[in-house]
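[Structure tokenization] protein backbone as discrete codes

[Encoding] learned vocabulary of local backbone shapes

[Begin record] amino acids and matching fold tokens:

___
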Amino acid sequence: MTRVLCLLIGIVCFVLFIPPVVMYRIVNLGNATGLLIGMILLIYALFFNAVNKLISNIWLMTLGKAFLLVVAFVAGIAVGLAIIISIFIFKACSTTPKGDETLVVLGCQVKGTSPSLMLTERLIAAKQYLDEHDNAVCVLSGGKGDDEGISEALCMYNYLVEHGVSADRLYMEDQSTSTRENLQYSLDIIKENGLNENVAIVTNEFHEYRAFKVAEKLDIKPSAVPAHTHWWLFSTYFVREWYGVIYEWTGMTK
């Protein structure tokens, strides 16, 4: 049973984490972690008896026993952290807005002058919210990267206007280069224009919790409008977000 389970989970890992590499050459800590776990499980399943015998032999040695205990301890901590962070992420996504909040859409990669898939996902979520709440306004936040034809804010503005959102409901913040700057500069615009300082953050679901932590440092009490991430990207970026959250917790972010 253990062997079959490891084999199945290993195969699932490859199915979930390989597509971004093959389709868009996306390689990051997320799919690297997923593929490493999948590879370890597949090797264990394929060489089940030999691996178990090797582990038994190592366990008989004093240093070997210590090594295996350390590995088990580290693995347990890693699994525990992954579970805790995942719970926090899903909890953040469930913090629904009341309906009168100012939307802040966090920028994402622009391809030339068009939104990337992930940015499009955020814009779809933003438009749906704006369509459902006639009095809501929106701050579009994102500067221009070296490889982008226009700023992320302008790209989002163009998309929403082209899809029927009135321009007078949109405010652009086009100087930010990080999530912290997204929220800080957007808050400045909100205050300057006398907008509702209750903020609903539009970003992909895996990113909501970390955005919340940044917002809290700026004395913002946010709610979430999570964008749906395509399945073949979700696992890679969800796992990568575990590292991002730990990085945020340690206070190493600006």
